[in-house]
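The instructor's notes for this session suggest beginning with a concrete chain rather than abstract definitions. Hand out the sequence below and ask the class to guess, before any prediction is shown, which regions might be ordered.
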Amino acid sequence: MPQENKKKLSIIIPVFNELNFINKLYDQLVLYFNDSTTEVIFVDDGSTDGSLERLEKIKQNNEYGFTFKIIKLDINSGKGKAIQTGIKNSTGDYVLLQDADLELDTKDAKEMYEMITKNKEIKCIFGSRYLSGKLKKNNYFFNNLIGKINSLIFNIFFSQSLSDVHCGLKVMHRTVVNKINLTVNDFGIEIDLASQIVRNNFFIYEFGVSYFFRSKAQGKKITWIDGIKSFYYLIKARFFDNSGSTNLSIAYSAIYMSFVGSHFGMGLGNTLFIIIFFIIGSVIGIHFKILSSTIIFFFIFIGSLFGKGNGTSLAVLIFFIFGLFVARNIKKYFLHSKFNYIF
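After discussion, reveal the predicted structure:
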């Protein structure tokens, strides 16, 4: 990461065919961020509508107080790639991600930046289109539904409580940026970013923002296909982008939880329970290492020795819950010890 002429804030703006919005976006940036401690980095992602030429013309006018940077990608590589490129070329103590299409208000970006700089305990703030009492305009029901479903799945997978994981307006301290290694090149970047922040034990705060949707005719890029792909990125981020020990724990827990599922139902119902408990086991394996997971399995095994028929099922379930309680407390006890890696 470049260190010369270090700034307080880096604003990274991916641009792909946004000619109709660039002038207004520039005016808002001058209104809210026009000072020498800020650098604005436009990453042109292979635009073909004259967006790059317009940016270059604005830069030549030199009527702004911030540092104006333009980075050109020769071919359209995706929002994620543009953000990665912008981050690599940023120097600010804080990094703010802002979309170029003005669906999200630059005034909200300013409020988020002021909030994070005034409270040193806050290292990351995500905008949320669903929290605020601010003005909204949105009639894309399907996109809205997919966004909420994805946020729900993300919260289940990562034990979070975010309302809008896909919101493009975010601000992070440099300590957060230095811990993450983004690899997703398309709109899945939002899931990649959020999951890595959580994995590195940073708390994500949310701030309600205004939202003014634009139609496909106005240049909206994201489609229902991106919504479907986001499910893939959620599964990938949670169950595959892990350390070897975590993946081993996932496999181990999924297997023994399948054993638990085998105690429920009959015929097709039994198969369904095995699949459900397999999924539950996968989630358990994420949160518990092999040793603490073995404690859960031990209690389940004891429960399987009690009762007959439905009585055995009830005993297994009770001992499973009790095993979770014991394993959780043991994990908490060893959390800050040299043995935390095995619990």
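Then share the key points. Strands lie at 9-15, 38-45, 67-73, 94-97, 124-128, 136-137, 170-173, 205-208, 211-212. The two ends are 36 Å apart (CA to CA).
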